[in-house]
Amino acid sequence: MAEKSYSPYADNNFPQQVYWGDTHLHTNISLDANLMGNSSISPDQAYRFARGDSLVAHNGMLIRMHRPLDFLVIADHAEELGVLDGLRHADPYLIETNQGTQLLSLYRENNKILNSHRLGDVYGLEDFNALLEQTNAPFLKTVWHKVIATADLYNKPGSFTAFAGYEWTSLDYAPSIIPGNLPTFSNLHRVVIFRDGADITSKTIPFSANDSKNPEKLWEYFERYEQETGGAVLAIPHNSNLSYGKMFSLTTYDGQSLTKSYSETRQRWEPLIEVTQIKGDSETHPLLSPNDRFANYEKWNSWYGKSLKGTEEAGSLKLKKYEYARSSLKLGLRLKSSFKVNPFKFGLIGSTDSHTGLANAEEDNYFGKFSADAPSAERMNKPMLPSLFPELRNWESSASGYAAIWAQENTRESLFAAMKRREVYASTGPRITVRFFGGWDYQPNEALRPDLASIGYSKGVPMGGDLANAADGKSPTFLIRAVKDPDGANLDRVQVIKGWHDSQGELHERIYNVALSDGRTVDKHGRAPAVGSTVDVKDASYTNSIGDPELAVVWRDPDFDRDELAFYYLRVLEIPTPRWTAYDAKFFGLKDIPEEIPMITQERAYSSPIWYAP
Fold first, then answer.
1. What is the mean pLDDT of the chain?
2. For helices 137-154 and 43-50, what crossing angle results, to 10°?
3. Does residue 446 sit in helix, strand or coil?
4. Which has more pLDDT, 447 or 119?
5. Statement: residue 275 has pLDDT above 90
6. Domain check: are 494 and 392 in the same one?
7. How far apart are CA 388 and CA 446, in angstroms?
8. Cβ pair 545, 517 in contact under 8 A
9. Quick one: 198 and 109 in the same domain?
10. What Gene3D superfamilies does the entry give (predicted)?
11. Host domain of residue 540
């Protein structure tokens, strides 16, 4: 038996480092990215940019990240993967079949449309689309092998992790919720992430929405993959805010009621959701959380953007209940009370969903959703998808977000394991460090201890974990620390968001301001005064003369009922800062910006929940 070490750190095996990355980036081999201007930034270039290299963007400007990322998932669409890039270069594997030859002919006939980035017009070419869906398997296999080989090339254990992955893009037409408008889409998109290298991932090819739009069929593919290869895979749903009430529906894709088996399967394959990205924030919505003063952050109400356009609130609310993270976490508690399994037991991450090949989520370095929307004096009020949604403007997009992972080391195995156990959190861009532990006897002074993490793990569970079976008279305590991005804004506050399922089967939520900067205190209703603002919009600047660089506290739930299912997660808010639109206005000397365009933002981080069950 080894002698006990003098070193207090010798036996530490818990995660001591947070790693930052993007799990949702598109390059020129995604059909829509290529159509919308990204004809040249490949997976190879995207990895180099994420590691810190400079690139020339499609508008001719040199671009570089402020700080490199620790990991990256290039998640190009599985549907028609690499086809448009293959047509541009007359790839022999693509055009060796009759379908490929016809595609090349149609591509050349319609090259003017393709090169004008008119995505809706291309989707209108029925023959072109029909042929795209028949892309030959040998070509797909060739493209996939290049994807996974490139991931292996850039994967450097200990310094940079490159995961093989793709996006499964299930999308159905849905009737518009806005009277008189065209139909919209119900999005069930998932990012698929493989833990393994090319020696294992080469034994499969991506399962796409052309194979099936039903998530359960995707999960069956995962089961086959793991059984046949010994590998590991997971999926991350995203843009639930654009799912038309379907992402967290209480029925299956086929319209059947949820079951215990469904719940177990979904929880196994989908431990996380992407809660914030370029196409809006999916934490909650003002219609769902009317007493939450911060609920209206970067909201898209549909594919038409931010405006509700006079939609009846009741109809909108009926859909949104099944679209947003907070309401769905509550629905998960109700389902657990029925099935003893929670299908919506997910951690929270952010990522970009950029289609530029550029994984940057910085307000002062925002290069748009698509390459056609790179910085210019005109881009702010240009339509993002002119042929599909002409009223959706670029200013409605968000410079967001990133995934933060607490792991033992920067390797595929360690990061993947952390994602599976949900020890992750979301940021809208700033690299705020967030620690969140739940237990039964954390003491107030422990929030100020330098060994907070050691205490947190030894006496409780981290974000993503479970508490159970409270002793009579005991309430859970939470050990919390948030530290500002060292190159960013001070912090305004830390909030605990609680949801619970009461004995009558009703669902509730409450927001607690548990730590406030600048010595502020809450009133008798638990409300806190605003932190103020130092933003100079014209100069696109701010100062850290308000707020605090660090907020730490031990908080005990004052309203705990040991017989009620509950969850808790953190929302950490920065002080106000300039939005990307303000940086555009300053750089290009723009005047008379319409009042509807926001110029100030209040960025944030969301921890994964900690759940309680009796």
1. 92
2. 20
3. helix
4. 447
5. yes
6. no
7. 54
8. no
9. yes
10. Metal-dependent hydrolases (3.20.20.140)
11. 433-613
Residue 445 shares a structural domain with residue 396: no
Bridge partner residues of 235 (DSSP): 192
Which candidate, 307, 554, 519, places its Cα nearest to that of 439?
554
Is residue 576 within 8 A of residue 602, CB to CB? The reply is yes
349 lies in the same domain as 444:
no
In terms of Cβ atoms closer than 10 Å to its own Cβ (0-12, 13-18, 19+), residue 459 is middle
CA count, 13 A, side-chain hemisphere, 14: 16
Q: Which residues pair with 589 in a beta bridge?
A: none
Q: Which two tokens stand for residue 438?
A: 């739940």
How far apart, in whole angstroms, are the C-alpha atoms of residue 429 and residue 487?
12
Q: According to the model, what pLDDT value does residue 134 have?
A: 63
Determine the longest span between alpha carbons in the chain, in angstroms. Answer: 77
Phi/psi at 405 (nearest 5 deg)? -125, 125
Q: Taking Cα atoms as reference points, which of 165, 228, 202, 221 lies closest to residue 30?
A: 165
pLDDT tens sequence across 495-523: 999 999 999 999 999 999 999 999 999 99
CA distance 500 to 569: 12
**Do 264 and 306 have their domain in common?**
yes
Give the pairing type, strands 610-613 and 466-468: parallel
Residue 373 lies in a domain: yes
Please check whether residues 148 and 54 belong to one and the same domain. Answer: yes
Task: Identify the helix (H) or strand (E) that includes residue 577.
Answer: strand 577-578
In a domain, 371, yes or no: yes
- Judge whether 420 lies within some domain: no
Phi, psi of 609 (to 5 degrees): -75, 165
Question: How many domains would you assign to the chain?
Answer: 2
Q: State both tokens at 335.
A: 């389902």
pLDDT at 72 over 70: yes
Distance CA 202, CA 54 (A): 31
Q: Which of 483, 539, 489, 543 is nearest to 515 (CA)?
A: 483
The verdict on residue 497 lying in a domain is yes
Assess whether pLDDT exceeds 80 at residue 564.
yes
- In this prediction, what percent of the chain has a pLDDT beyond 90? 78
Q: Which residue has the tokens 């090319």?
A: 198
User: Can you give the pLDDT at residue 391?
Assistant: 82
The residue written with tokens 């996939």 in the block is 144
Own/partner long-range contacts of 127-134 (Cβ < 8 Å, ≥24 apart): 127/102, 128/103, 131/99, 131/102, 131/103, 131/106, 132/31, 132/79, 132/80, 132/83, 132/103, 133/79, 133/80, 133/210, 134/99
**Are residues 311 and 257 located together in one domain of the fold?**
yes
On whether both 308 and 444 belong to a single domain, the answer is no
- How many CB atoms are located within 10 Å of the residue 252 CB? 15
Domain end position, chosen among 378, 401, 424? 401
Q: What b/e string do you get for 212-251 counting C-beta neighbours within 10 Å, with b at 16 or more?
A: bbebbebbebbeebeeebebbbbbbbbbbbbbbbbbbbee
Torsion angle in degrees (nearest 10) through CA of 437, 555, 568, 561: 120
CA distances from 505 to 330, 338, 342, 343 (A): 11, 10, 15, 17
By C-alpha distance, which of 85, 68, 67 is closest to 76?
A: 85
